[in-house]
Design brief:
With 906 residues, the protein is of the alpha/beta class. It is 26% helix and 17% strand. α18 runs parallel beside α20.
């Protein structure tokens, strides 16, 4: 493919020859996104005689192509490759679609994946910022400077020299990865002594804080969710802050739609009447963003009231057998420092405030009658699936969301029995829990060495740490056990280099982008791997063009428990792009390190290893029911053991091994290697009576809590948990005495922050609205923002309530100015009735486009508007920021599809 593109770009044509070739070439090249929408050359070529129309698929080949971005879907994606070019794209059509055997259909983002490989804005060559040099960084020009093309030899030498110089002068602590999470490691630096890390709560919010070991709740839902067939046994499915139609628009929505057709009722608790609620005809329970804890406390209080008046609402037997700390009569949580319980808090015995429906309504905005309806729906006589996303856990004051959700689920006994489920519903495992039925093998790479630098900066503090040299460390959010996080300790650092190794760079995906740009402009050196000039690349000194997954040998990706996707190489690397492994190896060599330490085998061998090690469940030996003979639960909430037996998935012959030119041994499986690759993976066909549809989250615990305890101190669900309180109180971020029960925490911003002096009985303040970001079909986090097809199809407005808009004199299409305590941004308004009054929603993941004179962002980047807010438990609050919104009196904002295309010509 690279040779074809090189020929197109560099061949010498006469104008006449070029125009003759345009008719044939324009369609193909425009299909690759290499030409603008309005193509003047095509108009110039109009008088030329047209070639006969040819079927673009004739002579082509369908290839299973990766859909790799961080949506969690991993759906089927196939492309038609002809003469080295992609001329068609489709999703799963390998078998007829049915509920038992659903096609693994991709969404609009997957169908636009062609632009992620062949887009006109692909970075073609290594680049250096024009006015950067090792001796004169001129950091103030980052984001404004011009670019120069350099060779790979020059680029690698610049990077290696800077690494050597910075390490020699300041030590390895001077490096920080600009990507969040301890999993985003800079491989060369890890072998070179390590680097300072960034640990953010990311998508998980409060669920990242060891909820399985503190209160007994799974942090990812894999073990807690029921199999999808069980939702047909439910009377009601409740969505708490969950919108799979936008956030996980593949197979999960098919399962929910089947439940709707079977007569299951849906209730959606959300600030917005979402696309999912509309599709499922759900009853909408509106709630102000960030006030869900108050709402659910009101629901718990109302369940107790209804139980006393009507009976059969609270499942007292469940509470007694499977929980601790509900009321004074319940079993107490271990090691309680004070004799407290949840019910006494609810009834106001500790603070004089009764948390009834009226109290909850005043804070949450949810009508009292809706709270009563929800409480009755959650009663023990009803079979209820109580599902939630992470979104409401990404709020200031959301520390107790996991505990209060578990509490109301336990009050209704909605766990471990048919038709009942209380679990996270997250991306590809949404609505379909249980052990995977088909699994990928390992790639055969060694683990990275231990990081030689102990420093881990909590995400909201990272830019201040770069600028001031100080931060407060609590540890790694991904520690999975109570020991993974510890007492807060004040730290010092001296950061001189920021490295970005993947598409989740913190400058774009983390809070306070405005201060992040300031931090980027302070350091000596910034290097980024990128496919496009995204936000981190734009503010870098050296940019290294990295391949997409379409340019790699191939790989496997788990989609849901029933499907394992296999993708193959679509094209040779375009222009001068190199893979991550190639780039890392070159840098390691330049540092005097042996790349074989990190990458002892080729990428093709890694692909083969993953296929060879893939396994599928042995249907013949599988037994129906539960989650197996679990001896307990791991920190994820998954059973420690399973009754499922796995056998090799793919048959591999010696001829296959010889053809691939790899090492391995032949084996017998259930599908041939070629069929596995041609099909794009393997899917286990389901049936209503198969052994797997009996999976119920926490089933072994419910069947025998003594033999199969949870990972908490008590072995049960802890409605009152001293372990949780001690963990939070040890962090030291804010002056708040966390209690063992799920209390309402007054946020530092949030709803109270929209009033003067945070008095909700008083006047509105300078920032009277609540701003939250929504996951939107145009993007997967920040990825796809540059895709012209999606930019044109899905504009990036700000959503606001119709009554709020009328009060401000705003109509749909008006350009509005959004102002937070941190920054300002422009967006076009989308006025709607289906949004809570006082709440403003902006889609997550836009790339910034900042006016350097005014500081106003014209790109609508949600994280540019966020500040350095951090909860007492170290969580990054993305979804309840205070703002004001007003009609903009400057020039109207252009549609995104006509602006900021970032096509670099060198």
């Amino acid at each position: 493919m690279a040779n074809i593109m090189d020929g197109i770009l560099h061949a010498e044509f006469s104008r006449r020859d070029f125009l003759k070739g345009t008719v044939a070439a324009t369609a193909a090249v425009a299909g690759l996104g290499m030409l603008p929408k309005e193509n003047a050359l095509a108009e110039s070529a109009a008088p030329v005689e047209h070639a006969p129309i040819v079927d673009p698929e004739e002579g082509g080949k369908w290839i299973a192509a990766a859909c790799w971005h961080n949506c969690g879907g991993r759906c089927m994606n196939k492309v038609m490759v002809k003469d080295g070019m992609v001329v068609r794209q489709k999703t799963d059509d390998t078998h007829p679609d049915s509920f038992d055997y659903p096609q693994q259909r991709g969404c609009v983002r997957g169908k636009a994946q062609q632009q992620q490989c062949f887009g006109a804005d692909r970075l073609k060559y290594p680049m250096k910022r024009k006015h950067w040099s090792p001796d004169a960084p001129n950091g103030e020009l980052r984001g404004k400077d011009e670019w120069e093309r350099i060779s790979w030899d020059e680029a690698i030498q610049y990077v290696a020299d800077q690494y050597k110089t910075i390490k020699e002068k300041y030590g390895n602590q001077a490096f920080v990865t600009g990507s969040w999470g301890s999993y985003s490691e800079n491989i060369p630096l890890m072998y070179y002594g390590g680097h300072t890390s960034v640990a953010d709560s990311t998508s998980y919010g409060t669920y990242l804080l060891n909820t399985n070991t503190t209160i007994g709740v799974s942090r990812n839902g894999f073990g807690a969710n029921n199999d999808r067939y069980d939702m047909l046994n439910a009377d009601t499915i409740v969505f708490l802050s969950l919108n799979p139609a936008w956030s996980a628009p593949g197979t999960p929505m098919i399962h929910f739609q089947r439940a709707k057709e079977a007569g299951v009722k849906f209730i959606s608790v959300d600030p917005m009447y979402s696309a999912s609620a509309q599709a499922l005809d759900a009853e909408w329970v509106p709630v102000r963003t960030g006030t869900d804890t108050a709402l659910l406390l009101g629901v718990a209080s109302e369940m107790l009231r209804l139980d006393a008046e009507e009976g059969d609402i609270v499942d007292w037997d469940f509470l007694k057998k499977y929980t601790v700390g509900f009321d004074a009569e319940s079993e107490k949580a271990p090691n309680l420092k004070d004799d407290v319980n949840f019910r006494d808090y609810l009834e106001g015995k500790y603070d004089g405030i009764v948390k009834d429906a009226a109290w909850a309504s005043k804070i949450s905005g949810t009508p009292v009658e809706s709270i009563t309806m929800l409480a009755r729906a959650l009663g023990k006589k009803n079979n209820v699936w109580l599902l939630h996303s992470f979104a409401f856990a990404r709020n200031d004051g959301a520390e107790n969301i996991p505990q209060i959700v578990m509490t109301i689920g336990a009050m209704g006994g909605h766990c471990g029995k048919p038709g009942n489920c209380m679990a996270l519903s997250y991306t590809h495992n949404s609505a379909n829990g249980g052990d995977p039925l088909v699994k990928a093998g390992g790639r055969g790479l060694p683990g990275t060495p231990d990081n030689g630098v102990p420093g881990i900066i909590a995400g909201p503090q990272v830019w201040d740490a770069v600028l001031t040299g100080k931060y407060h460390m609590i540890g790694d959010y991904y520690g999975y056990t109570a020991e993974g996080l510890g007492k807060g300790v004040d730290m010092e650092c001296d950061i001189h280099c920021i490295t970005n190794v993947d598409e989740h760079a913190y400058l774009a995906s983390g809070p306070n982008m405005k201060k992040g740009i300031e931090a980027y402009r302070k350091v000596d050196f910034v290097v980024t791997k990128a496919q496009f000039l995204n936000t981190p690349a734009k503010y870098s000194d050296i940019v290294l063009p990295v391949t997409t997954y379409w340019e790699l040998p191939g790989g496997l990706a788990s989609s849901n428990r029933e499907f394992l996707f296999c993708y193959s190489k679509v094209t040779d690397p375009l222009f001068e792009a190199k893979s991550d492994q190639e780039i890392d190896s070159l840098i390691m060599e330049a540092l005097g390190l042996d790349p074989k330490q990190a990458y002892p085998i080729s990428e093709k061998q890694q692909f083969f290893n993953a296929i060879k090690g893939a396994t599928v469940v042995n249907v013949e030996t599988a037994t129906k029911g539960g989650d197996g003979a679990a001896a307990g639960y791991d920190p994820y909430g998954n059973p420690l053991s399973s009754s499922l037996e796995y056998i090799p998935l793919v048959t591999i012959t010696q001829e296959d091994i010889d053809t691939w030119g790899v090492e391995g041994e032949p084996q017998e499986g259930v599908i041939s290697l070629q069929d596995f690759i041609d099909n794009g993976g393997y899917q286990v066909e389901r049936k209503p009576d198969d052994p797997f549809c009996g999976h119920l989250g926490y089933a072994s615990f419910i069947q025998d809590p003594e033999a199969h305890p949870l990972a908490t101190a008590s072995g049960k669900f802890e409605i009152t948990s001293q372990t949780k309180a001690d963990l939070f109180n040890g962090f030291g971020f804010i002056d708040w005495d966390y209690k063992p029960y799920p209390e309402y925490i007054t946020p530092t911003c949030g709803y109270e922050g929209t009033f003067k002096d945070k008095d909700i009985d008083g006047e509105k303040g300078e920032f009277p609205y609540l701003l939250y970001n929504i996951h939107y079909l145009r993007r997967s986090h920040t990825t796809f923002n540059n895709c012209p097809w999606l930019r044109e199809t899905w504009p990036n407005p700000v959503f606001l309530n119709a009554s709020d808009a009328k009060e401000r004199g705003i109509e749909s299409g008006d350009t509005v100015l959004i102002t937070t305590r941190t920054a300002q941004a422009l967006r076009k308004a989308c006025v709607m009735e289906g949004l809570m009054p006082g709440v403003v929603a902006i889609p997550h993941g836009a790339w910034e486009n900042i006016d350097e004179e005014t500081g106003i962002d014209h790109g609508g980047a949600d994280n540019y508007l966020l500040g350095n807010e951090i909860t007492g438990s170290g969580i990054t609050p993305y979804n309840n920021i205070n703002c004001r919104i007003e009609k903009y009196d400057g020039p109207a904002l252009e549609d995104d599809c006509y602006t900021d295309k970032r096509i670099i010509e060198l």
